[in-house]
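# step 3/5: fold
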Amino acid sequence: MFKKIVNCLIPIALIACSFTGVFAQDYPNRPIHIIVPYTAAGSSDFVARTVAAKMQENMDHAVVVDNRPGGNAVIGSELVAKAAPDGYTLLLGGSSVLAANPALYTNLPYDTLRDFAPITNAVMSPIVVVVHPSVPVNSIKELIAYAKANPGKLNYGSAGVGNTLHLAAEMFCLTAGITMTHVPYKGASQALGDLLGGSIQVMFDLPQTPLSNIQAGKLKALAVTGKKRVPVMPDVPTMAEAGLPEYNFGTWIGFVAPAGTPPAVMSRLYKEMVKTLNQPEVQNAFAQKVMTVMPSESPEAYRQFIKDETDRLRKLIKTAGIKPER
């Protein structure tokens, strides 16, 4: 009896494997949608559209970007987590979406590592520390000294509670042993506007956002994170050069699919994305936005990277006592 059951199951298994193989060979046969859980025109949107345009050209197949903002990126993320695992609905996520949110919220409607299948990282970006000209400092050491002499007097802006810009500043405060007051905004551009107006004095931001104002002398750049200086700001030292080598923070953005996406489809997506990211015109486009292309060695390596980053940010959030906005 047992042999009969086994003999019946074997053909079923073969049919299932055959179906998966046929499905993978037929992939893609309809548009691939990349969900961006933020509004258009931001850094994440730029990454998605740059990759989508080149992938579409390479594959001769439609790759569409859909912006689904809201809920601190939870709305768009949940949509992908619960989408069919067929390779046609992907999520662009990064430090905030895939690592900070799971560390910040205990009631997310999905589990990042359980409900997503990581494909690859795409880009890394340093953080630049900028201050309003009225702040009497010209270096990181002077900023730390001023903050210690004036505890709580400096206000820094971010794109929201738990956003990577917020976490970058909190890690700086903990590393330097200083206190600054956090002022959250709905976006980095709003915070930048108040920084230019002097309502806040400090901001940790992606370089491309304040770059023109730095170059115009409207803001002072004190340091950039990362191991190398930024080519568009060659006179701005790294954090290590500025006297705080133990500080390490940057942002990253990549792509994931719903968990359960067939391995052959995942392999195709990884291959196409890495091919796209390694093309000179794509790398040049990102370089103009002060982003460095850094694809993962494999989907498995990206999964481990996300896990490590989540653990790291969870420790930071707990130590800093950061609570999500109600």
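# step 4/5: annotate
Confidence is low (pLDDT under 50) at residues 1-6, 12-22.
# step 5/5: archive (pending)
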